[in-house]
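INFO  loader      accepted 1 record
INFO  loader      residues=87
INFO  predictor   begin
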Amino acid sequence: MPELSRFYGIVIKMFFSDKMRHTKPHFHVYYNEYSASVGVDGELIAGVLPVKQLKLVVAWASLHEDELYIAWNKAIRKQPLDRIEPL
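INFO  predictor   done
INFO  writer      dumping tokens
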């Protein structure tokens, strides 16, 4: 699973062809022992994150929404993903 970004101990990744598990465009977030799936629109789809980290992720997603949709479209086509800058 390619890593898109990393900031404040938070790691953002996106699966190739993950549309079978969740139909909504989303990415995966890892922070210490926590993990979650978050929609490109900032909605928490599954999993758990501490409130502070979830707020950072939602802010990051809103800043990079266009890049996340581009990454999602590449991922479902199994094309290489570009890194996205941290906050």
